[in-house]
Structure formats: structure tokens, C-alpha cells
Automatic annotation (TrEMBL), chain A:
The chain crosses the membrane at residues 6-21, 26-46, 58-81. Belongs to the complex I subunit 4L family. Its EC number is 7.1.1.-. It is found in: Cell membrane; Membrane. It is a multi-pass membrane protein. This is NADH-quinone oxidoreductase subunit K.
From TrEMBL, chain B:
Keywords: Cell membrane, Membrane, NAD, Oxidoreductase, Quinone, Transmembrane, Transmembrane helix. This is NADH-quinone oxidoreductase subunit J. NCBIfam families: PRK06638.1-5. The chain crosses the membrane at residues 6-21, 28-45, 51-73, 94-118, 138-160. Belongs to the complex I subunit 6 family. GO terms for molecular function: NADH dehydrogenase (ubiquinone) activity; oxidoreductase activity; quinone binding. InterPro entries: NADH_UbQ/plastoQ_OxRdtase_su6 (IPR001457), Nuo/plastoQ_OxRdtase_6_NuoJ (IPR042106). NDH-1 shuttles electrons from NADH, via FMN and iron-sulfur (Fe-S) centers, to quinones in the respiratory chain. Couples the redox reaction to proton translocation (for every two electrons transferred, four hydrogen ions are translocated across the cytoplasmic membrane), and thus conserves the redox energy in a proton gradient. It comes from Aeromicrobium phragmitis.
TrEMBL record, chain C:
It is found in: Endomembrane system; Membrane. It comes from the Bacteria. Its EC number is 1.6.5.3. Signal peptide: none annotated. It holds the Pfam family Proton_antipo_N. This is NADH-quinone oxidoreductase subunit L. GO terms for cellular component: endomembrane system; membrane. Its main location: membrane.
Length: 97, 255, 624
């Protein structure tokens, strides 16, 4: 049991660090997906530990939301790329003071 | 358990590949590996429905979407891995390590009870159990996800939509422009040559040879040229080169 | 008829409003409207006076209420006007002399393109002055008090293109404010003490309160009177006020407005009767002012400033008389009336002379004008005889009665008043000698000529009044007339028989006249000797006894530096605090700004770090 959770945390951390260090918006996005998947693993593991299916339901909802999120996120990336010819997250820094 | 210990290191390695891959395509492939691994993990943990959904939705749909967008905008570039924000990488590493350590410690504190297992919950079948939950306790949330999906579809349409600012280019316009260019610069008005055909090579990465023997660069597809994957005469094997020389020699002899 | 007293005020006020609102279209006939308004008020006043004469002595005070001005739970002020023996005399003086000066101004201001405005201000002044004297409530009186202050300000600064006139107007206004502070506090004290500001109620009740309150009221009112009547120590504005057109000097700064202080003291007889201390202060102020004014009059070469010094001096006499209590009130008013006649006469005469001399006011440029301007000379001469107290003239009676009353009160005060009479004779003779006698010292291209009849007729009327004004004293008519208002005059023992005193005064006056005639019989230099060449007395008199310098050191200088300090405090302290706070916040924000890189990854790091902190906190709580 513990090993699944630990793997989940490991993947989550790697995803988070990826968000922090990668600049390509698509890769950053993939890292976000990795984080979501890591939480899903935790959900499923805890579902088994507690012996009910609520965790799996939660993971299912995460997947649904993630699918919607990917659609919108990629649309945003494409739209930014169209106007700025770049997919680097550092380029979109016009909000800085 | 064996499956886990085989898969887990692979998944961590693949996840790390996400961090260090220079090309976004490689990162996407690494992610696909992680996702498939996760699907197996779900299967191992008595979640056959999620196993299927993970494969279909994530690996099948979402990863394909990623690759599709990559193809649209970024397949021809490699990312620079040089950090531009001062201290960002170090801070990320420190926070990441601390986070991982903290969570691992936390796990030791949280996971104390013994695992119940899903034999009882899955007695009527995993899909039936999930369905029973979804359509009873979580029915409102389920309905909301429907609204969310619709919204996402509409949002994607709005975001990807582009107003037409100039009249549509018809075939006539294209032909007129080609003829104009021919008149002004002498550019050939016909279709560009297909790669390889006249040069006895049928690989798309080798430029066609024009009647005077010079390579026609424009015959190689754009994406290959951008990636620098086209081959020139230099790369053609020695035998082929020799054959070419003989050919040229034949042509030169009479002169 | 007597209930129509508000009409007295309304007529000139309507005239002023008409002229000011009608604007340039009334330029051609505005002066006629204003003069008609003043004359109408005079006729109305005369009718009222006659009606008053026909009444019984104890039925001569009629108060009519126009309406309620202020109505609160504890404070009630009505627009009430009282016509009685005192105010009816003032109404006649103000409207009578005022009308004459209106007529005179038609000629004097004929060439001024802002003549209509001038007449509007004159009418405004008449209305305000009538409000002042008719008021039955101290607050209404204060309304008129401020109204005449406003009119005075507007008319002193009438030639506002001259910086000196603008400065003089400001000076008069500001110095009057100092006196007004006294007035305001006095009125507030009345309300706090008596719950009313009605003149009759306050003066009736003042005997029941402590002497301290009465003294405070008396001194505060005296401060107001000093400001308005140019008494020491608030006298400095009057000489500068001569920057205004000469009719203004005659009407406002000689005959009527400056006597408002005397009126106030007499009107507040109840308060002053209740406080010996306040009365003594009034006497001291009057005595000092009469001597100081005479001193200044001796030294000035500017004909209007000599007359202004003389005005101060004569009002000093009135104050002195008013300070003597019931023994002097009637004589103060008597002298006020006769002074109003002869000083207005002389100011208008001086205006006539200036008119002939191209607005030159330096007496050293005059001389031998008696042949060139016979009517002006004759009328001015009659005014002169009146002011020095030539036997039989109006000034003889009025001044002599004051000197007698002062002697009866205190020998030294009486002697001071007698010396003042001698000095008066000296400086007025000096003025006459330098202006009408001696040799011609005219500037080039100056051709003196007699003024038109529109100016000389008022002079003749005023000269006649100057001569005949003494008739008011026939059979002590004025004393009896004013007795219900001023109280019964106790008969005091005089240190010497009346005839001896009169002879002594006449002898002193004759000595002053003789000295001046001898000194100025001829050879008056046409430029003033330098300050270093004249006696210290003359030098001090020329500089108005250095009162401006004293005011500068005591008031202007500290206030100016206080203001600078406050400006500095405001700029550095208060603004510094405000802007400093803003600056510190700004700097802090600039520092925090560095964290806002705009890089989404920096923010993500923040989120991730924050999550770590939250988890650590949760762990600490759980494990702890």
C-alpha cells in the first residue's frame, strides 16, 4: 500500500518540478497531466485501502475534468502561438509590474 | 507485487524524462509510458474500469491531442534547457525534494490501518459498483461534468476560431499569383518537383535533381528541411556517388 | 408713520441694487436715481422727526418689527428697528449730509467713467449706516456695522487701479476686523449672559449682573468702537483711507461711519453706566486719540490727511464725552452732529480745492487760493471757524460743553481737552494759511477755478449748518431731547465759573491761531523739509507717531513669521507626514514589485512552496 502512495508522491513531485523548470507550454501542460495522474493513483490506492469505490469515482471525475482542461488548455496554447509565434511560458509575461 | 516493482522504476524514469527531454515529442512519449504504467497500476488495484478509461481517454485521446498540437506548432524545434530565471531551478529542486521527503514522512503517519481490499465492493462487478455510485451519490457532480464538457467544447471552439480578415484565396488567385511571380522573378509556375524522382532515389529526404544535375531544394518537404533531416549529395552512399560520377563522366566525355 | 422706519433703509438699498443690477444701461442717470433715493430717505426721516417732535417725551421711542431673523429654541433675533430721539438725529445727519454729498459727487465724479458704481456704493453705505443706527438688536446693529465696513472698503479702494488705494482698503478692512472680533465676542457674551441680544433688554438687565461682566462687555464694545472710529490703538487705517474719493472721505470717514463707535457707546449707555472701569477706558482712549490726532494734523502736508488727523482728534473729543457717562452723552452726540456738518463741509471744500489743483493734495503747492476760489474759501473759512470753536459758531458750543464736562469730571482730563483745542486751532490755521493765504506756489499748468454750482451749493448749505448748528443747544434743547436715551445729567461742580473756562479756552485757541499765523504768514517752502531738518515732534507726526511701525513690529511681523512657520509646518510636517507615508509605501511597493516578475513559473514556484508550507504546517499540527 505505502509503495503505491510513495510512487504517487514521487510522480507528483516530478510533475511539479517539471512545471517549474520547463518553458515549453506543451511540456508544462504534460507535467500538469502527470500531477493529475499521480493524484489519481493515490485516489485508487486509498480506495483499495478503505475498501469502497468512492476513490475510484473521484479518479474518474478527475479524468473527466482533465479531459476538458486539456481541450481548453491546448486551445489557449494554440491561440497564443498564433499571435506570438511562441509556445514559451516565459514569453507571456506582459502582466508583470 | 513483482509487476509493481518492475513498473515503478520505469515510470519514475519516464517521468524524469519529462523533465530532461530536449524535444517535446520525446517528453510526450515518456508521458505515454507513465500513463500506460498507471493503467496497469489501476488494474493491479482492482480498478478495471479505470484501467480501460486510462488507456482510452488518456493514452488514446489526450496524448493524441498533445501530439497533434505538437505537430501543429512545435514539432520542428528543440527546447533550450538553459534556465533563464535566476535561481528558479535550484529553488524548484529544493522545494521538490523537501516536498517529496515531507510527503513520504506523512505517508508513514497516515497509512496505518491495514488494507481492506475491494473484494467486497467489487462483488457485483467493478463497473456496476462505480455506476451505482455515479448515478446515486455523485449524480449531481456527474451532471455538472456534462455541463463542463459542453462548456469546454464551446470554449475550445471560441479560442481556436479565427476571424477571416481577408478574402478567401481561391485557386484562381493562386494561379494568378504564380504567373505574376513567374513574370517578375522567373520562378517556375508549375508544381514543385517531387523529391527523388528524377535522381533515381525514392526517399522523400533527398532532393530531386534538376535536368542540369543541380539539386532542387524545394522538392524536399518543409518539415524535413526545418528539422535539418534532408540529405544532400554528400550523404549519398559512395557507390551511388560513383555511379553519378560515371554518369557525369559520360556526359563530359563528348565535350 | 414711525412704523415705516424700515423704508428708510429699503429706499437707498433698492437704489444700490437697482444701480448695480441694471448695469451700464443706467450709467447716464444712475447718479440721479441714487441722489433721489438718498433725498427720499431724508424727507422720510424729516417727516418722522417732526412726528416725533409732536409726541410726548416718554412716547418718542417706537420699535417696529419687520420679521424674525433667527428663530431657534433658545435664541430669538428679530429684524426690529427703533426710531427714538437718538436714532432720529442720526437719520437726519446721515441722510441730510449724505444727500448733500450725493449732490456734490455728481459734480466731483462727473468725469469718472465708473460714477454709477460709485453712487451705488454710496447708497449701499447709506442703507447700511441707517441699519446700524436704527437697529433695535445688537445683531442687527452688527449687520449694519459690517455693511458700512464693506461700503467703506469698496469706496476706499474705489480707484483700485492705484496700488496704494487697494492697500489702504485692505488695511481699513483688516484693522476693522480686529475691532469686530471685540464686537462679536461682546454679542456672544450678551447671549450667554442674558439670553438675548436686544439692545433695550441688554441695557436694561446689565445692572443685575456682575460688574466684571459689565466691564468685559464695555471693553469689548470699546474695542469694536475703536476699530470703527479710528481710535488709538486701531487708528492707523484712517489716514490711509484718504486714498478714497474725497466725497467718501467727507461722508464716511468724517461725518458718519467713523462716528459709529461713539453712537455704539452712547447706545450702550446702560452697560457703561454699570462699569466705572469701562468708562475710564473710554475716557483714556478718547483723550489719547484727540491729542495724537491733533499732533498728526500739525505735521502732515497732505490736506486730506490733516483733515483726517483732525477727524480722529474730534472723535476723540466725542469718545471722551461719551466716557463721562450721562454727563457727557448728550454733548458727545451734539459734537458729533456739529462735527458732521463742519468736517463734511471742510472735506468737500478740500475736494473742491483738489478739483481745482488737478488732484494735487500737497498744501505746499497751494497758497493764495482765496481769490481764485471765493465760494470755497468762504465756506471752508466758516467750517474752520466752527472747528476751532470761534465764539458763536457751532463748534464753540459743542466743544466747550465737552471741555466743561471733562473739567467737572477730572481737572487733568479737562486740561488735556483744552490743550487739544489749542492744537486744533494751530493746525487748522496752518491749513488755512498754507491753502488760501500766502503766496502762489502752484505747479505749472495749474489754473485754479471755482467749482461748478452743483459742488458749491452743498458747500454753502453745510457752511450754514456749521455756523447755525449751535442752535441745537439753545436752551439745552439737545440735552433735554436726548435725556430719555442718555440719562439725566447730574449737575457737577466746575472748578471755575463757566465764563472763565470759556474765556480760557478762547484764549488758548487764539494763542494757537496766532502762533500758526505767525509761523506760516509767508515763505512756506514749496517742498517739504527733509525729515532730518525738522523737529522730532514734526518728524513723529509725519510718520503718524510711528504707529504703523509699532503695528508692524507688534502684529504684522509676528503674524508674518507665524504664517511662514505654519506654511513650513504644513509643507514639511503635515504634508511630509502624508507624502512621506505615501513615499514609504511606494518604496516598499517598489521592493515587492521585484517579486512580480510576470513569469508564470515564478508564481508556480510560489504556489508549490506555499503548498509545502501548508503540508508542513498540517504535519506539525498532526504530529504535535
Amino acid at each position: 500500500m505505502t509503495e503505491y502512495i510513495t510512487l504517487s508522491f514521487l510522480l507528483f513531485t516530478i510533475g511539479a518540478v517539471g512545471v517549474l523548470v520547463r518553458r515549453n507550454a506543451i511540456v508544462v501542460f504534460m507535467c500538469v497531466e502527470l500531477m493529475l495522474n499521480a493524484t489519481n493513483l493515490a485516489f485508487v490506492s486509498f480506495a483499495r485501502q478503505h475498501g469502497n469505490l468512492d476513490g475510484q469515482t473521484a479518479a474518474f471525475f478527475v479524468m473527466v475534468v482533465a479531459a476538458a482542461e486539456v481541450v481548453i488548455g491546448l486551445a489557449i496554447i494554440v491561440s497564443i502561438y498564433r499571435t506570438r509565434r511562441s509556445a514559451s511560458v516565459d514569453e507571456a509575461n506582459l502582466l508583470k509590474a | 507485487m513483482t509487476t509493481f516493482w518492475v513498473l515503478a522504476p520505469l515510470m519514475v524514469l519516464a517521468a524524469l524524462g519529462l523533465l530532461f527531454a530536449k524535444k517535446a515529442v520525446h517528453a510526450a512519449l515518456c508521458l505515454a509510458v507513465v500513463m500506460i504504467g498507471l493503467a496497469v497500476m489501476y488494474a493491479l488495484q482492482d480498478a478495471p474500469f479505470l484501467f480501460a478509461v486510462q488507456i482510452i481517454v488518456y493514452t488514446g485521446a489526450i496524448m493524441m491531442l498533445f501530439l497533434f498540437v505538437l505537430m501543429l506548432i512545435g514539432v520542428d524545434r528543440t527546447d533550450s534547457l538553459v534556465e533563464t530565471i535566476k535561481g528558479q531551478r535550484l529553488a524548484a529542486a529544493v522545494v521538490g525534494v523537501l516536498f517529496a521527503v515531507t510527503m513520504s514522512v506523512a505517508v508513514g503517519q497516515v497509512v496505518v490501518s491495514s488494507t481492506v481490499g475491494l473484494e467486497e465492493a467489487n462483488a457485483d462487478g467493478n463497473v456496476e459498483g462505480l455506476a451505482a455510485l455515479l448515478f446515486t451519490r455523485y449524480v449531481v457532480a456527474f451532471e455538472f461534468t456534462a455541463a463542463l464538457m459542453i462548456t469546454a467544447v464551446l470554449g475550445a471552439m471560441v479560442l481556436a476560431h479565427r476571424e477571416r480578415l481577408s478574402p478567401r484565396r481561391t485557386q484562381i488567385d493562386v494561379q494568378r499569383q504564380r504567373m505574376r511571380e513567374y513574370a517578375e522573378t522567373g520562378r517556375h509556375p508549375g508544381n514543385p518537383p517531387t523529391p527523388g524522382v528524377f535522381a533515381r532515389h525514392n526517399g522523400v529526404d533527398v532532393p530531386a535533381l534538376l535536368p542540369d544535375g543541380s539539386p532542387a531544394e524545394e522538392s524536399v518537404p518543409d518539415s524535413l528541411r526545418k528539422r535539418g533531416q534532408e540529405r544532400t549529395d554528400v550523404d549519398i552512399s559512395a557507390a551511388q556517388r560513383r555511379a553519378k560520377e560515371i554518369e557525369r563522366g559520360d556526359e563530359e566525355d563528348p565535350s | 408713520m414711525l412704523e415705516l422706519s424700515w423704508l428708510l433703509i429699503a429706499i437707498p438699498l433698492a437704489g444700490a441694487a437697482l444701480l448695480l443690477l441694471w448695469g451700464q444701461r443706467s450709467d447716464a442717470f444712475g447718479h440721479l436715481i441714487a441722489t433721489a433715493a438718498s433725498a427720499a430717505a431724508f424727507v422720510l426721516g424729516l417727516v418722522m422727526f417732526v412726528e416725533l417732535l409732536g409726541r410726548e417725551a416718554d412716547d418718542r421711542s417706537v420699535t417696529s418689527t419687520l420679521g424674525t431673523w433667527i428663530e431657534t429654541a433658545r435664541f430669538h433675533v428679530e429684524f426690529a428697528f427703533t426710531v427714538d430721539q437718538l436714532s432720529s438725529l442720526f437719520v437726519l445727519l446721515i441722510t441730510g449730509v449724505g444727500t448733500l454729498i450725493h449732490v456734490y459727487s455728481i459734480g466731483y465724479m462727473a468725469h469718472d467713467e465708473r460714477r454709477r458704481r460709485f453712487f451705488a456704493y454710496l447708497n449701499l453705505f447709506v442703507a447700511a449706516m441707517l441699519t446700524l443706527v436704527l437697529a433695535a438688536d445688537y445683531l442687527v446693529l452688527f449687520l449694519g456695522w459690517e455693511g458700512v465696513g464693506l461700503a467703506s472698503y469698496l469706496l476706499i479702494g474705489f480707484w483700485q487701479h492705484k496700488p496704494s488705494a487697494a492697500a489702504a482698503a485692505n488695511k481699513a478692512f483688516i484693522m476693522n476686523r480686529i475691532g469686530d472680533v471685540g464686537m462679536v465676542i461682546a454679542i456672544m457674551t450678551m447671549f450667554a449672559t442674558f439670553g438675548t441680544t436686544s439692545i433695550a433688554a441688554v441695557n436694561g438687565a446689565v445692572g443685575d449682573v456682575s460688574a466684571t461682566t459689565a466691564t468685559a462687555l464695555g471693553l469689548l464694545l470699546l474695542l469694536g468702537a475703536c476699530g470703527k472710529s479710528a481710535q488709538v490703538p486701531l487708528q492707523a487705517w484712517l489716514l490711509d483711507a484718504m486714498e478714497g474719493p474725497t466725497p467718501v472721505s467727507a461722508l464716511i470717514h468724517a461725518a458718519t461711519m467713523v462716528t459709529a463707535g461713539v453712537y455704539l457707546v452712547v447706545r450702550s449707555a446702560g452697560i457703561y453706566d454699570a462699569s466705572e472701569v469701562a468708562r475710564t477706558f473710554v475716557i483714556v482712549v478718547g483723550l489719547v486719540t484727540l491729542l495724537v490726532g491733533a499732533w498728526i494734523g500739525c505735521a502732515k502736508d497732505d490736506i486730506k490727511k490733516v483733515l483726517a488727523g483732525s477727524t480722529m482728534s474730534q472723535i476723540g473729543y466725542m469718545m471722551l464725552a461719551a466716557g463721562l457717562g450721562p454727563a457727557g452723552y448728550a454733548f458727545a452726540i451734539f459734537h458729533l452732529l456739529t462735527h458732521g456738518f463742519f468736517k463734511a463741509n471742510m472735506f468737500l471744500g478740500a475736494g473742491s480745492v483738489m478739483h481745482a489743483m488737478d488732484d494735487d493734495v500737497d498744501m505746499r503747492h497751494y497758497g493764495a487760493l482765496r481769490r481764485a476760489m471765493p465760494i470755497t474759501f468762504a465756506t471752508f473759512g466758516l467750517g474752520y471757524l466752527a472747528i476751532i470753536g470761534f465764539p458763536g459758531m457751532s463748534g464753540f458750543f459743542s466743544k466747550d460743553k465737552i471741555i466743561e464736562a471733562a473739567l467737572a469730571h477730572n481737572l487733568w482730563i479737562g486740561l488735556g481737552a483744552m490743550i487739544g483745542a489749542a492744537i486744533t486751532a494751530f493746525y487748522m490755521t496752518r491749513l488755512m494759511m498754507m491753502t488760501f493765504f500766502g503766496e502762489r506756489r502752484w505747479r505749472d499748468r495749474v489754473h485754479p477755478h471755482e467749482s461748478p454750482s452743483v459742488m458749491t451749493v452743498p458747500l454753502i448749505v453745510l457752511a450754514a449748518l456749521s455756523v447755525l448748528g449751535g442752535a441745537l443747544y439753545l436752551g439745552n434743547w439737545i440735552g433735554d431731547w436726548l435725556e430719555p436715551v442718555a440719562g439725566h445729567a447730574e449737575h457737577h461742580e466746575l472748578p471755575a465759573p463757566v465764563i472763565v473756562i470759556q474765556l480760557a479756552v478762547v484764549a488758548l485757541v487764539a494763542a494757537g491761531v496766532a502762533l500758526a499765523v505767525w509761523l506760516f504768514r509767508s515763505d512756506v517752502p514749496d517742498t517739504a523739509p527733509a525729515d532730518t531738518d525738522v523737529s522730532i515732534l514734526t518728524r513723529a507726526g509725519r510718520h503718524e507717531i510711528y504707529t504703523n511701525e509699532v503695528n508692524g513690529v507688534l502684529a504684522v511681523f509676528p503674524v508674518r513669521y507665524l504664517t511662514r512657520f505654519l506654511v513650513w509646518l504644513d509643507a514639511r510636517g503635515i504634508d511630509g507626514l502624508v507624502t512621506g507615508t505615501a513615499d514609504r509605501i511606494g518604496e516598499a511597493s517598489q521592493g515587492l514589485r521585484a517579486t512580480q516578475t510576470g513569469y508564470v513559473r515564478s508564481y508556480a514556484l510560489g504556489i508549490f512552496g506555499g503548498a509545502l508550507v501548508v503540508v508542513l504546517g498540517l504535519l506539525a499540527v498532526t504530529l504535535g
